[in-house]
Amino acid sequence: MRGERDGGCAGSGQSQVELYAALRRDSRDGMSNRALECKYGVTWSTVNKALTSAWPQPRMTTASARPSKLDPFTLLIDESPAHCSGRDQETAPYRHPGSTAV
Asked: Domain limits of the chain?
């Protein structure tokens, strides 16, 4: 994992708030942003966010679940003939209905 061998936050159980505090503390002590990236195994954007804000941004929530576009047709799909969904139908090569080739 990134930063693990350098004593960074990856895999060490350090929270994001603690990481931000450590980044700000080391920056005050004179470390460059590049050195902070290497020491903690984070990207430049994480360093910049930590130096501009004392608190990390809250996690983004996922979009609410929406119904499937196929929901109005599920009854039709479920009632389709059994021969349309059989294994033989899936593995057989497609033949055009007007074709006479065997």
From this structure: 1-56
